[in-house]
Amino acid sequence: MNVPFLDLRAARSELRAEIDAALRRVADSGRYLMGPEVEAFEAEFAAYCGNAHCVAVGSGCDALELALRALGVGPGDEVLVPAGTFAGTWLAVSETGARPVPVETRETTRTMDPDRIEAALTPRTRAIVPVHLYGHPADMRPVEALAARHGLHIVEDAAQAHGAAYRGRRIGAAPSTAAFSFYPGKNLGAMGDGGAVVTADAALAGRVRLLRNYGSRVKYRHETRATNSRLDEMQAAVLRVKLARLDEWNARRAAVAERYLAALAGLEGVGLPRTAPWARTSWHLFVLRVRRREETRRRLTGAGIGTLIHYPVPPHLSPAYADLGYGPGAFPVTERLAGEVLSVPIGPHLPAEAVETVIAAVRAAVRDAAA
Ligand SMILES: *Cc1c(COP(=O)(O)O)cnc(C)c1O
């Protein structure tokens, strides 16, 4: 039995009739941008998160970038980001003209280490972008305390954390500002690109609305220089169908994770993801640490199990940021994790027998790689 890393057709199958109806409704409406579907989705997603405003945009990267720009972040500013994250977090920051300043990873949660933030501050620091990586919330309480003490903005990168919660409060809930992605593979995924800024700050929401639409509130009256980054009506209609399933699908992800955790516990040479007592993870990814990763991965591929590495090269070591001057060893925890992490299939549509196949294959691959 082959188990692909992710097969989005299963989600499509489960919702076929509803998605077809939603797409037909938009096609027949003659209204393809900035219409009723986007408006309804924004209201529904804001309510889901427990926040006042949602502004839908073209992607998760745009959501981060436009939220930062709306807060006035730009050239000459510094923004603290995790060293261990998807490059998109950094790229959104650098697209504003600001400089991403990495903060080392905390090994247990694999998110930004709050104890390392203070040392990264300079007089130019304007904002912090914690990332809820793999769906596990960053430890926000110390970040919020530090941001308040130094007058810094926080924009959470919630691209992997739809439905996750920190100390009983859903990610994106008031009073926070969070950027979400609706990339197809995310927990709430469109059939194309999409993103949103969720915030309690009405003025911020208003500025993002301006920035996503040519800097214009009234047609052909441009108040500021801006871009075009909109969620279209088709994607909004699809997302409305899927939002109604998000909690149930996240619960199915959690069930897969529970089974992996039980079945792989104590396996020599394998580290399992840990969930902090204050966290409810969205289980966007199930990420093992594997001592002999390359050999193990090769064996899993041979056994028909799809795996991915999230992420093989930390942004500070990628060519895109060579000019920042970080070399190997600058962020040892992040770099060690990058050399060991291995993501195995997880999702709301992974059949129970596929989960068992993955478990057996991981056990065999780890054993053979050690031999
Ligand atoms: C997916 C992702 C993004 C970017 O979202 P896009 O919609 O692909 O632009 C940013 N940060 C993280 C952590 C992500 O996983």
Automatic annotation (TrEMBL):
GO molecular function, one term: transaminase activity
GO biological process: polysaccharide biosynthetic process
Keywords tagged on the record: Aminotransferase, Pyridoxal phosphate, Transferase
Enzyme class: transferase
The protein's Enzyme Commission number: 2.6.1.106
Active-site residues, as the UniProt record annotates them: K186
Keyword Membrane: no
Pfam families with a match to the protein in the record: DegT_DnrJ_EryC1
InterPro entries in the cross-refs: DegT/StrS_aminotransferase, PyrdxlP-dep_Trfase, PyrdxlP-dep_Trfase_major, PyrdxlP-dep_Trfase_small
Sites bearing N6-(pyridoxal phosphate)lysine, chain numbering: K186
Record bears the keyword Transferase: yes
Top-level taxon of origin: Bacteria
Membership in a protein family: Belongs to the DegT/DnrJ/EryC1 family.
Stated name of the protein: dTDP-3-amino-3,4,6-trideoxy-alpha-D-glucose transaminase
Native source organism of the sequence: Actinomadura viridis
